[in-house]
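Quick note —
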Amino acid sequence: MAGRLTAPELVGLVLDDFRGWDEPLGPVDDPEVAAARRRTGLDEAVITGEGLLRGSRVAVVACEFGFLAGSIGVAAAERVVRAVERATAERLPLLAAPASGGTRMQEGTVAFLQMVKISAAVARHKAAGLPYLVYLRDPTFGGVLASWGSLGHVTAAEPGARIGFLGPRVYRALHGEAFPEGVQVAENLYRHGLVDAVLPPSALAGIADRALTILRSPPAPPPAPDERALGDEPSGQRATGEEASGEEASGERLPDVPAWESITRSRRADRPGVRQLLRHAATDVLPLSGTGAGERDPGLYLAPARFGGVSCVLLGQDRRTQADEGPMGPAALRAARRGLALARELDLPLVTVIDTPGAALSPAAEEGGLAGEIARCLAELVTLETPTLSIILGQGSGGGALALIPCDRVLVAQHGWLSPLPPEGASAIVHRDVAHAPRLAAAQGVRAADLVAAGIADRIIAERPDAAEEPRAFCRRVGRELERELLAMVHADRAGLLAGRLRRYRDLGTAPAHVA
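Predicted structure written out below.
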């Protein structure tokens, strides 16, 4: 790629006050390495160190492609590992900027196996709750991409960068033809959910700073017991099973709305969804792309986000894309599991936003393992060791909703609902027609007040008269409640939260209703 930045130039562009960590390497007998040293002014294909990113200390590992195609041999791998280990010991976030042809072929199998120790060091760094950001540069291939190049919490790529596992030269030699054009290109990887963004080097500092602001900012102090979080208007209700219809903190009672009316209101095309919630209520958002596994499902929105004084990982079912492009399928739940891993590794609270007419019912979904993905989401979410909060924002139908519901706290919009199937589907099973859907919805206890009474939900968030009529005010109301709940939980005992969550679902239906 014309105009490729060298590793020192990239580091100088992104970081201020850079200080290298690399100990000088001694003389070498290999004439290729000696020539690369003279040509680049570097002693290996990797430079490491630390600097300031918008005022915050950050560690960096960057490849120099001009040094033997950025290939990683024993000495380069040792330099990477020591830098990762130092970043972990000093509790620094790490920015990796690979640009490499992969393993250094001249050093053979021993060099090939260096990717194991690099991956192990990165895994320990992430296990320590420290952010690992990756910027894939042109080109990045082979074992580098198949190890530390693909382990980022957030992964961006350089525009037009060639990125892949099997290098095009090797492919041609093995198969006698060129690799198809346009596949191993950053923009195509973004379209397939393998990287989260494609951006030029000049934008890297800004996006990395945003990511670290969300992922590392400490939470604000917990709210006072009776204080409304940022509240300048009544924002919801806290209720017990005996107060099924609920009463807002201001003393205003919510109207007793029939289940079918709530279902009808929740299906309005202009009802605000997760994207509007983030636009109007979040202070910062970093959308991520897909599962990281070569697939994208627009039915689920994954984004680290910050609401006022607290950061979280948000998983939101996107009503608009589900309406335009079809119900969420297995890939959406694999993206959800990526979000669970982010929350676990970075020790961030998790927020799930439920708003789905149901998961995909199709041969492709069956063959893609939809039921198994629901099961894995359920098992991972209910046992996640970070605080969790679920918001039933609108429709909550079937297994797609079930997968994201089992949290420490569950909020429900006044016209949100939760059901094993769309009411029409349930009516078809029970009555062999859809005409009984309104009556069956009422009998099943799907509406917000019923969910609180059964101990499934903790608070109802008011709509006046419904979210579609006041989208901005409603979203801000939800955001205030979200922040209030999260701030209380992030300062709570983690073991106690998890024990309470497991007890809640263990006792559901067999014990008195949960009391908020």
